[in-house]
Design brief:
The complex is a heterodimer of chains A (about 160) and B (about 500). Chain A is mostly helical and about 160 residues long. Chain A has five helices and no strands. Chain A starts with 9 loop residues before the first helix and ends in a 14-residue tail after the last helix. In chain A, about 35% of the residues are buried. The mean pLDDT of chain B is about 90. Classes of the chains: A mainly alpha (about 160), B mainly alpha (about 500). Chains A and B meet through helix 1, helix 2, helix 3, helix 4 and helix 5 of A and helix 7, helix 8, helix 16, helix 17 and helix 18 of B.
Amino acid sequence: MTPATGPRPYWLAAIVIGIGLIWIWGASSLPPASRYAGIGPRAFPTIIGGALVLLGIILALQISRGMSFEAQEAENADAHAPVNYAALLMVLAAATLPILTLRTLGLPLTAMAIFALVARAFGSRALVRDVITGAVLGSLAWLLFDRLGLQLGQFLPIAGF
Amino acid sequence: MESLEYLMHGFGVALQPMNLLWAFIGSALGTAIGVLPGIGPALTIALLLPVTVSIGPTSAFIMFAGVFYGAMYGGSTTSILINTPGEAGSMMTALEGNRMARRGRGAAALATAAIGSFVAGTLATFALTFVAPFVAELAFVFKPADYFALIVLAFCSVAVVMGNSRTRGLISLFLGLGMGVIGIDNMTGQPRLTFGQAELLNGVELTVVLVSLFAIGEILFVVSRYDPGKEAPLVVSGKWMTKQDFSRSWRPWLRGTAIGFPMGTLPGGGSEIPTMLSYTLERKLSKHPEEFGHGAIEGVAGPEAANNAAAAGVLVPLLTLGLPTSATAAVLLAAFQNYGLQPGPNLFTSNADLVWGLIASLYIGNIMLLVLNLPLIGMWVKLLSVPKPQLYAGILIFALIGIWGVSGSEFDLMVMVLVGVAGYVMRVYDFPIAPVLIGLILGPMAEYQLRTALTAAQGNPATLIETPISITFLTVAALVFIVPMLVKRLRQRG
């Protein structure tokens, strides 16, 4: 194990412990085991919560000993490259956008917007082409999956169809 | 030879024109997707899950079988031509295959990979034909306690085998298990961990978690460290396999199959270990060990065969016990559940058409894939020139449709963003992804079996270690856990 350089990610352990505590707390309001079976709905969530707390503590110990974390390898990504937060936020915005627009604006328009956003985040400069591609792709996908019986909402809710 | 009779019947199902068409669509789609970066077989099948609404189960599974094998054929192409293994199983192929392509032997590398995949796929499917009904018979004896022990074994192996750290593997597993308990408790009707959200009463959908972890997490990760890849794909060059290539390849194909299939059937076997084992073995046995590291054909033939054979092996526990041991198998299980089917020993009798049609279509899919991949390789390579920005943008749209089309709820879209961010963090800090899915899908099963066993025994926990089967499984599970620790200790001392 090579000692980590830079800040130590104790927050990872904190999140794991936090989730564990929430699960234990959530289980505590459940009815206890029935006398007959000796086990009820409370047991499993409690065990899982307890295990997460324990694992979180072990993780914290490993971090304090200087464990290093190497990002995973992925295609088209350089694990050691400096992190491009602007691009990351842009894609995150694209992923969040449909929560607001999918029902009101429909799939084709939403697809158009997120396609342009993601392509831009990856460095595409052809905005007009991306907007058109996104709209076409969204419309085609809507037509195809609608025929397959999927409920994707209205095509263009603003126009009423 | 009952199996053969059933298999013939299965061919009758799989050879119907419509089903042949589905097999073709699946194989072509699978190959295309295997070539494209960013999407693996698990994600593809998850994104195709919505079609289960409109096509019958037999056709759907025949298509999924094509995707399943096709993605692996496609994966070897990218490994060889641009040195980017899309999944753990093709890492070893990239090692030697890419060197071969650089030395102008790309065509031979691709050919030995494709033929090796075909040989291994066919032989492993053949083994599956005979092993699966046998295991299914065995499984009838399993009591709830035995199932529970088996699932515990699967948990232990998955957490230990996948990823580089046991702690982080276990954290992934328990996060999945934690999500698995959300929703109404099947045995008492109590809502658990729903935090007052009506949307959570039905639990967390596997599709949502899988699409978010794989697609959203992957896109976030890649965009934050985007490397447009200065390397252009190598041109497919050189002579096709020569006589010497054949004589150097056929033994590795067979050995790879022999390693891959049994390891694939084990819980937590996966494809990493068999391919690595096969690579090491070929290196030891080769008459040209000096070529390893510079493009030895044995180093492509063996691991590639092992990879495909392991994938077929994964189907044995899935079909006979309902036990998924890889991310892809977990999605296939979800697909079964979408149809209200429960894989397990009963499936072989209650849905013989489906099971044998699926197995027969694995044979057919393999032949189709060989045809699609040997002469048409140039066409698939063209897919590599799809510009990456637009490719990843397209993946996000399909991820969105996969989630919105199933539920039509904004709540699931919020879950998608949240889990997607979690997937990003997991990639940055090297937490393995697959244990989350295994935990999510097997957790409820483990709990059900445990509670059934305890209820039947009036709460006496001794029932869990009453049968030889459960004792065996639990012992092996403990060993899986303890042995690597001991080995590490011994090494540190020595």
